[in-house]
Amino acid sequence: MNKVLVANRGEIALRIMRSLKEMGIKTVAVYSEADRIAPHVRFADEAVLLGPAASSESYLVMDKIIEASLKLAVDGIHPGYGFLSENAIFAEKVKKAGITFIGPSSKAINMMGNKLAAKAAAHAYQVPMLPGTPNAISDKKEAEKIAIEIGFPVLIKAAAGGGGKGMRVVQKAEELSEQMDRAISEAQASFGDGSVFLEKYVGAPRHIEIQVLSDTHGNHLYLFERECSIQRRHQKVVEEAPSAILTPEKRKEMGEAAVRIARACDYAGAGTVEFLMDENLDFFFLEMNTRLQVEHPVTEMITGIDLVKEQVKIARGEHLSFTQEDLKIHGHAIELRIYAEDPSNNFLPDIGNLKTYRTPDGPGIRVDSGYEEGMDIPVYYDPMIAKLSVHSNTRTEAIAKMLRAIDDYKIEGVRNTLSFGKFVMQHEAFISGHFDTGFVPKYFTASVLEKSTNEGAEVASILASFLHSKQNKKHSDHTPLSTTSPWIKRREKR
């Protein structure tokens, strides 16, 4: 594989190209008119204009991407994440054009892309699942009967959904009919498929996912877990690896369940199996993402494995060069997604010019960004500016490092989520490891940003004291912090 086209934009396109260049592979960028001067375009060996700014006229036009690939004689296409990365039709078109798709087969994408098909596969391979309907349901009376059997609250979910679209929580039977209509309508508008199903709603779950790697020779392994429970609108904003609550036994159990899912769809490449975990540490299959995840840097940091390079090697037909026994967890990593959003106004997206844009640096700090100072944040795409990831020996040290990195990150010209990230890092629920997917609605309001800023110096002192005491006691930092945290004690005295 001598030349690869990256069918994406921004930070992920740039991140992929860097690994490709280290492998001695030439790179081809694609871009829209809005991205003419983007860093990923300048970094690539060659670049192709796809069309106008709208993704429907550029990054989502399969035939234009394949035409450019054939014209420039590329050997492979890497889709990144988002856009066409989980589009089975695109994967099949790439294959028929005689180009290697750096990702799983269209069959695997199809199977895992439909939540009902994925649930059926999980059931066949004895992976734990939440009680619910095995098939799509449209009969409201039948849905009500099943919901009563499952027990309220229940969750209505789009079969072809993702990102919280077509999802409704129903607390009682009287609400079911209206919420089903809304979920079906939203699913049809978002995915062109109005199929929905029911499952038991877990009120305060943890969102934990397992990174898997599978080659074309039947070898499958897991690269441990990522905790993704800090979310807004069902979308992740803070991720860490490993989780603060998993025991080695539970980690192994979840990892082996994820590998069974990969086997179920004859997977090849990098993928992620997502689970919900309740307060008893029982876990349930949620879905599989058949692509590289946004939060993959934290896994790379704790394992030392470059996931993009592994994707390329697998696509070239190589065997995995390491075994499950070779993999070890090294330290702790945390990632903060930095969005052009206003956290004080319900996280509404913001646009504008990056008048000041300076990123932090230092040992154990990684910034994946597709922007530079002076660039505009366009309205056409996802509002993520960058991903800030840190790595240290322990979770407590990683939190302290993230706080320092946030303070060193300078963004002026657009509202952004740096202040929200700082709020999370300073909150006792996050510090103690006692949090779930309800963290944002439970703890966060616009008014707390000002308060958390005023308490910043105090928290830094508390963290330093906590770090010192933990180092002296030589406790493992891979278990939840106890409620004897000095932060919690300080708050209880108030």
- Proportion of beta-strand residues: 15-25%
Instruction: Work out the helicity level.
Output: 25-40%
Rounded Rg: 22 Å
Strands of the widest sheet, in order across it, are 13-12-9-10-11-14-21-19
Mean pLDDT across every amino acid position: 91
Number of strands: 22
Largest sheet: 8 strands, antiparallel
Structural class: alpha+beta
Distance between the termini: 62 Å
Shape-level CATH architecture of the largest domain: 2-Layer Sandwich
Q: Could you state the CATH homologous superfamily of the largest domain?
A: ATP-grasp fold, B domain
The backbone outline, from C-alpha atoms, is: globular
Number of domains: 3
Poorly predicted spans: 478-494
- What is the CATH level 1 assignment of the largest domain? Alpha Beta
The CATH topology of the largest domain is: D-amino Acid Aminotransferase, Chain A, domain 1
**Contiguous helical run count:** 18
Could you give the topology of this structure?
Blueprint: E1 3-6, H1 10-22, E2 26-32, H2 39-43, E3 46-51, H3 62-71, E4 76-78, H4 88-96, E5 100-101, H5 106-113, H6 115-124, H7 140-150, E6 154-158, E7 168-170, H8 176-191, E8 196-200, E9 206-214, E10 220-232, E11 235-241, H9 248-264, E12 269-277, E13 283-289, H10 296-303, H11 307-315, E14 332-339, E15 341-342, E16 348-349, E17 352-353, E18 356-358, E19 365-369, E20 376-377, E21 384-392, H12 395-408, E22 410-412, H13 418-426, H14 428-432, H15 439-443, H16 446-454, H17 456-473, H18 486-492
Parallel strand pairs: 1-2, 1-4, 2-3, 4-5
Antiparallel strand pairs: 6-7, 6-8, 9-10, 9-12, 10-11, 11-14, 12-13, 14-21, 15-16, 17-20, 18-22, 19-21
Helix pairs in contact: 4-5, 5-6, 12-13, 12-17, 13-16
